[in-house]
Specification:
The complex is a heterodimer.
Chain A lengths: L2 H9 L6 E10 L2 E11 L4 E5 L6 H8 L7 E6 L2 E2 L4 H5 L2 E4 L11 H11 L4 H14 L15 H13 L5 E5 L7 H16 L3 E5 L3 H7 L2 E6 L2 E6 L1 H6 L5 E7 L4 H9 L3 E7 L2 E6 L4 H13 L4 E6 L4 H13 L23 H10 L1
Parallel strand pairs in A: 3-8, 3-9, 6-7, 7-8
Antiparallel strand pairs in A: 1-2, 1-4, 4-5, 9-10, 11-13, 11-14, 12-13
Chain B lengths: L9 H10 L3 H23 L4 H21 L4 H7 L3 H5 L5 H34 L3 H25 L5 H28 L6 H27 L7 H21 L3 H23 L17 H10 L3 H19 L21 H9 L1 H8 L6 H28 L5 H8 L3 H10 L3 H25 L1 H11 L2 H6 L1
Classes of the chains: A alpha/beta, B mainly alpha.
Amino acid sequence: MSSDSDILLADQTNRPAIEVTNLHRSFPGVHAVQGVSFSIQPGQVVGFVGANGAGKTTTLRILASLDYPTAGEARICGYNVVTHPAEVRSRIGWMPDHYGVYKNMTVLEYLDFFARSFGFTGKDRIDRIAEILEFTDLIRFPDQYVNTLSKGMTQRLCLGRALIHDPAVMILDEPAAGLDPKARIDLKHLIRILAEDGKTILISSHILSELEEMCDTLLFIDKGRIVHYGSSESLRRGNSSKAIIEVKLAEPMDHLKTWCDLAPNVSWAGEVKDGCRIEIASPKPELIAATLRRMVNDGIPVMDYHLVERRLEDAFVDLLNEFENPSLASNSTSHPRSSSVPPPFPSSESLGRQESEL
Amino acid sequence: MTDFPDWLSPMLVKELRQGLRTHLFSMSLILFHVFMVITLLIGVASSGMGTSDGFFWFFVSLLLLVVQPLRLAGALSAEFERDTMGLIQLTRLDTWKIAFGKWLALNTQTLLLLTSILPYLAMRYFIGNLEFFHEMATLYLIGLGSALCSSIVLGTSIFQSSLQRIFMLVGLGLFVIPVIFGMIENRFSSFGSIDDLALMGVATLLSIYGCFFFIAFGASRIAPPSENHATRKRITALLVSMIFMGIGLLNSSSDLSAFCGFLVVVILGLACVDAITEPTPIYSRVLEPFRKNALTRFSACSLAPGWLSGLGFFCLCYLFFTLMLWDRSSFMKVIDYPGDISPRAYLLPIANIILLPIPIIHLLFPKRASYSFTFGLYLFIQGCQWALTLILGILASSLSFVGFSSDLFTYFPIPPAVLVAFNDDPAPGAYAFLLVVSAFTFILCLAIPVIRQRDVLADFIHNLKPSSRRATA
């Protein structure tokens, strides 16, 4: 809690942009966040995923210094969010899951208010507002009342507002919620530019496919605990040691079924429309390629042979099911058929592994 | 973007831009001028201003004391409802600047309205031969009242429930409006012996402090745990009380002395209620300034944020008030006491009235840290003990008990009932008994929350230690 030690930590170089250690937040009767730990390096774009009520917004609000933890610690650029909120606030751009706009106020006045509030004066203020208007493509609507803007424009305005003081870390809570496809593409484009600009971005969303496109890493939270932290690829794979292959043949499947019974490291996984699935004992590419080679050499008339990847949504749902009920892990409806349950929150060892993965 | 200079508060600029565009402002301005013209015409038609005098001041008072302040109803809670408070708090604006900016913007508009009244005052002077400076002084007092009322409305706008806001406004309105009109009436009728200049001075100081207190009240209740508003509020309350005490002591007019005594009770009472209902702060940077040396650590016991030091502040105020009043009977005109009972005896039940809800709150809800919850519950318990006293009083008098007060006290020893008992049973034996029980209640009211929340006390003591000693611990 000492401010001296905080400043010392903040002054150290190469500190994570966001650092959360064993964070807890309780409300009367609800334990919203339970021992969440993760860290995000400068320049990383991380997707924060979880069902409604999982603890996403509470965690983000604590990171934005708008709420405080009941235990644990959160730091932005080395500064503790509880003890040094002013330093934290000057380094973060916060975009909540609501628009937060005023009536009787134009786009220009809205940005002007926040620019003044962040201490911009004179020409600096005017220049900064012009830059933001240009970046968000609102330059043609400076005198339009903010409550008359479309959702997409309002969202761009809010992104502009969050950027007005040029923060190093952006925390975006459901930025794409309620937007039409074009507005989503526009927003995605802006976020990509910010990422290229070197900003650290933490985005929460329900739309996993979009997060996958924008983010380097995904952070999954459920019931206040981190259930996965790593790339989307690692989520798809899960902890499975097997690979599922979909095969299309030029003749009935019986031949392949018999072949599966005889061949090593391969087992029959059932028929699907226009083909069947086989399970290979390891997801290693060499083994997958070797299996195909052997299949062809043994005279199986293969027309199509491809690795089945889980949809991210399926992987997430499986992950949640497995996390909630480990005994159901093997009965998972989507494939791969087996994947082990991740720990409740990353251990220091797994965090190290995850970071090296990044 | 350059319509307002850079040095103006961003909040003031924003609120002015929004406020001047509202229909309520433009409509009230137009309607007000229509009424002013009608009032003036009535005055001309009746060849004198006397007939329209009441109408004129009614409309002015309605606009400045009711319509304008009510525009701030929900000012702070609306920021939460619109989810914009968090966005503002993330800027460099602290909650004081947010609340003050809102208040200042409204009062700038009120000043605009006041200025627009001046031509009518001039016309009233030429047509009706009224005393211009007398009218100006009245307008000044109404202006001060408007500023005070708007700060009260702003302070109560922290409550998200309209019912709570209405309850608070009615309660405070019943107290404040009569004070404002009392001062204005005093100017007209010259009742009592308070001279104009002293009254103006007291009214100005009271309004300035009142505005500060209610704005700070609102600001501190929306503030994040890292901000300390408590110290400034408590020191200001003590300083202003000392000034009023000084005015009272130096002034020859016993009316003014009694009035100042009354104001000191109100100022310290409100400041104490505010202090003892503060939530437990997260001891972080807010306690840093208090860790410097032994003196600052000692001052933290009454000036640091939180209800715990709030109890210390309460004891300090109580001590200050008791010492100052010990031999100044002129101040005690504020309380109507029987001749053979020492007025000092009243101080203990009054202190207990303020304190009683606190042990109840900490016994029942030790973990609830919400500002508005604690304050709302405090008001509720306060209302209950007064209602109970009233019911007991009605019951006792209607049943014609012989020893009304002693019965009342024996079975229901709640502080307001004790106060009634003091007043009604001046017998020496009863007086001593009541005093002992009051002292016991006082100690209990202070001890229960501290014992119940001893972990808070331990935290507080630990966090006041210098950094090196805390690290060792």
